[in-house]
Task: structure prediction
Amino acid sequence: MSAMAIVWQFVEVALAIALAPLFTGWIAQCRAWMQNRSAPPLTQPYRMLRKLFHKEAVLAEDASLLFRAAPYVLFGAMALAAAIIPSIVTDLPFARAADAIALIGLFATARVCQSLAAMDLGTAFGTMGARREMMIGFLAEPAILMVFFNAFLLFGTTTLTGVVDGSAAHPSLIDPGAIFAAIGFVMVLLAENARIPIDNPATHLELTMIHEAMVLEYSARHLALIEWASSLKLFNYATIGIALFLPWGIATHGASVGAVFLALAALLVKLAACGAVLALIESLSAKLRLFRAPEFLAMAFLIAVLGLLVHLLMGANACA
Amino acid sequence: MLESALVVELLKLLAAGMLLVSFAMLATRRIQRLISLFAWQGAILFLSTLLVAHDAGLTELYFSAALTLALKVVALPLILHKLVRRLDAQQDSERLVHIPATMLAGLVLVILAFGLAQPISQLATTILRHTIGVALAVILLSFLMMITRRKAVSQVIGFLAMENGLFFAATSATYGMPMVIELGIALDLLVAVYILGIFFFQIREQFDSLDLHHMESLKEE
Result:
């Protein structure tokens, strides 16, 4: 591990934190274009954050320490997750400490913390949102694990950096199971990040809201941190997807500075494409009834399992 | 050699796509989407047949690929769409048995199909021998679709999808059937769809719906 690796590590995390609201804004803009609305500016999420940071925070009388701490824990967990995911370089000192299964654990920690904070005040909406979030979460977790196992089996490693290194070493490898895994992953991404078939953060309709119900009681800087953390979560999921399925261009171990800048450009292009595709999916689909959500996630799980089966049964060409 | 390896990879990818479309067919409720998925399955079949024809250098297979394109990607979906429009059944959606349960059953069928195909693929010498399991799985999944559906149109699509699976099995195990048989099957399919179309109208006239469970009771009231 060199000093350079540590520098890139911090650059990567800082980049993720800085770019995450931009990515959210880009998706919102694409969605507006596709739906023939006039689009909000790309910087809208930043303005929102600035406005919220300048407001005075209001807390409920019964709020405990948990309620106050939750936004910071949430933001911290997402920033740490960004440190583990190889978005531009794979030589990450942090990534050695935790593999992708620990990454899922990190996401789960954030979810539990947010749900507990939502229940903390004892309001009806908060509790309801927390329960729904936990339901989505426990269904999404096995699905995302199965998606990860697809890539892990192919390269014989459980770290995302290992997967990216492996696919850089064997660029011509096409795994037939990967299309299943990719579809399963997109379904989990939509469910986990409160996107349209499962949840719609733009509405405050009590029958349907999940994510919004949990954060109703927050204001000012706490709300800003939570919003930032959720856009960071979406950004993290997008970079996980890129690392698993479109890893071309990510700078591997011992790459030069030029390669890293090339990787950065590739990342921006890929993120723009991913955002457009996400917006397209969201525009084309209608929100599912909450009771259909388990069905949706069970399908994601089964598709990922099918990917594993296809990989194992159709003459596995692993290169571990 | 390198090109051949690439072709095998692509064929595996197409086979996986075929399996995916079969599962999507199993899970959709809308009849119109079912028809377009059937067209997609035909398109994947066309591409894989074309690839095999190119790799094996068989002119016969080019003809059967063209036949697949004309019949299964263009003609049959068009006829079915027209039929559904004339039956006024566009909005029909199935009340399915629990979809995840169906998918789980499908998963078991896939494992079974691969197990069954193992000895066959060890004997076969074609470049598609790894995908015989997929072909068998597509056939079994179409069976499952016919069992779980109640509407007449979707059962017919299940039947047609089964033929797709058989065709895929034939190309992967033995580089396709003789041309005469293939032409015969194609003609049969076309006629079958026409006759079943007439049946649809008769069924609807009799029961005011295309739901086949009305036909389960033999006595009239």
Summary: The two ends of chain B are 68 Å apart (CA to CA). Chain B touches chain A at residues 6, 9-10, 12-13, 15-17, 19-20, 23, 27, 99-100, 103-104, 107, 110-111, 114, 130-131, 133-134 (CB under 8 Å). Helices of chain B lie at 2-27, 31-56, 59-87, 99-123, 132-148, 152-174, 179-207.
